[in-house]
Design a protein that fits this description.
two-stranded antiparallel ribbon; 182 residues; 5 helices; alpha+beta; single chain; 4-stranded mixed β-sheet
Length: 182
């Protein structure tokens, strides 16, 4: 076999290999390559909180299989324990089964998202009610893929409500890491 034929066959084999590798990458991993940090519009009609009024209440809207949730797990567990000790009541929505859910969230009562909130922008996100039962905040935990006490939108809202101040952030444009709810 002459050198030109060998080079052509080797080049063809390398092209087939590169094409196969590209296809495998697209097939197995390509479905996860998308921008989760996206603009979202949160708007929520006033609905009754998950528990009887009398305490500040929070609903975590969660999806365990969402890559965005991984950056919030430790913060959500810590924040839930810290504010729970101060009398805030917590529930969860979004994902009903507790598979893959952080321990703190899996122990919270499930609250189904009301029909008037059927177009909820995604998870992880949160809804907060004042002690009188008025919806105070709907939106993301933070503006990025990770959340901490320093980057949280939630902590100032909870602190204001616990101090007896009024909060009304029920319509907002946000850019945050969100996954669609099923």
């Amino acid at each position: 076999m002459n050198i030109w034929v060998r080079r052509s066959l080797v080049s063809l084999a390398l092209l087939v290999w590169a094409t196969g590798l590209g296809w495998a990458y697209w097939w197995f991993e390509g479905r996860y390559i998308k921008s989760f940090e996206r603009p979202a519009f949160f708007q929520a009609e006033q609905v009754a909180p998950p528990f009887a009024p009398g305490q500040v209440q929070v609903v975590h809207v969660w999806q365990s299989n969402c890559p965005c949730s991984a950056g919030h797990e430790a913060y959500v567990d810590e924040m839930t324990a810290r504010f729970g000790a101060r009398g805030v009541r917590f529930a969860r929505a979004g994902q009903r089964p507790t598979d893959g859910m952080p321990a703190g969230l899996s122990q919270l009562p499930y609250w189904p998202i009301p029909e008037v909130w059927a177009d909820w922008p995604g998870a992880p996100s949160i809804a907060i009610w004042a002690a009188d039962g008025a919806l105070a905040y709907v939106g993301p935990y933070s503006d990025g893929a990770n959340c901490s006490a320093d980057s949280s939108f939630v902590e100032p809202v909870l602190q204001a409500l616990l101090d007896g101040r009024r909060v009304d952030i029920t319509r907002q444009d946000a850019v945050s890491c969100l996954c669609d709810l099923p």
